[in-house]
Amino acid sequence: MKPFAHTPIEPGILYFGTPVVLISSENEDGSANLAPMSSAFWLGWRAMLGLGARSKTTQNLLRTRECVLNLPSDALAATVDRLALTTGSDPVPAGKVKRGYFHVSEKFSRAGLTPVPSETVSPPRVAECPVAMEAVVEAVHPIADEDSAQRGGVVAIEVRVQRVFVHDDIRVPGSPDHIDPDAWRPLIMSFQKLYGLGPQVHPSTLARIPERLYRGPDIDRARSVAGSRG
Predict the structure, then answer these.
(1) What is the mean pLDDT of residues 5-28?
(2) Per residue, what are the HEC states of 50-97?
C-alpha cells in the first residue's frame, strides 16, 4: 500500500471524538433526569445537541425548553460510565431494550453526583462537573427527514446558553472569564470509548486572536436574564 493511501470503509458510527456532556433536564413530576451524550458542538453561546427523538431527555427538553449542559473532566470517567445503558424512560423504548438499556429514575444517586440549584432554569447543575451551562431551547431541527426509514428518529436541538459556571481551578489565573486549556481536561468519547486529552502538540496561530473578538450578542442577552431559580 502506498503511503497515505485511503481505504473505503463503512463504520456503523462516526464518533471520531467529541466531549461528553451530562444533560440535566426536568421530568414531568419535577424530578431531575441526567443523561450522558457526546453528539454536541458549540457556536458562540449556542450549542447543537444530537439526540434520539424518543429519549427522555428529548421529551423533557421539548416540554420544558430548559436544560443544563454539564461537562465532566476525564477524572469523572468512571462516574459517567455508571449512567451508561440507563434511561429515564419507563417503559424502556424497544430500540433501547435491544441495546441493553434499563430504567433508572434516580440518575444523580446512581452516578454518585450532587445536584446544585440552577439560577435561570429548573434542572439542577452537577456540582462535580468543572463546567455547567444553563440553557434554553431555541429551535429543533429534524435529521434525515427526507428518508422515510429514518424520519422522526433523531433531532438536533439548538440551545442558547444563559449562564456559564466553572470551577476556579480551570480558569486562567488573574483572568475572570478565560478557561485555561492546559488545566481543563474534558472527557472525550471516541467510538464508544472514553478518553482524555493529551498535552498541546503545536502552537496555534488562531490563539493569537483575542477571545473578546468572538463575543456575540447572546452574552448581552444572557446578562438580562434574572437569576430567579433555586
Answers:
(1) 93
(2) EEECCCHHHHHHHHHCEEEEEECEHHHHHHHHCCCCEECCCCCCHHHH
